[in-house]
Amino acid sequence: MIRTARLIFCDNEHGMGDVCFPDVYGQSGPELTANFLESKTAQELRKAARKEGWGVINGADYCPGCMECM
Prior knowledge:
Helix content: 25-40%
Shape: globular
Structural class: alpha+beta
Radius of gyration: 12 Å
């Protein structure tokens, strides 16, 4: 089975993908697998990200920490 997962990466200067939604870096195996199996659409992913404090400004995605500074 091949699945594709969508992730949102912060467009601010966090290096190369250091901050993303969902946070795959802090997840365990089952949580990470669940993200791949859910296969959310881009619209569903952005809606979930907004609930966690993510935002879009001028077409760029920003994490909660960056949104506080804007």
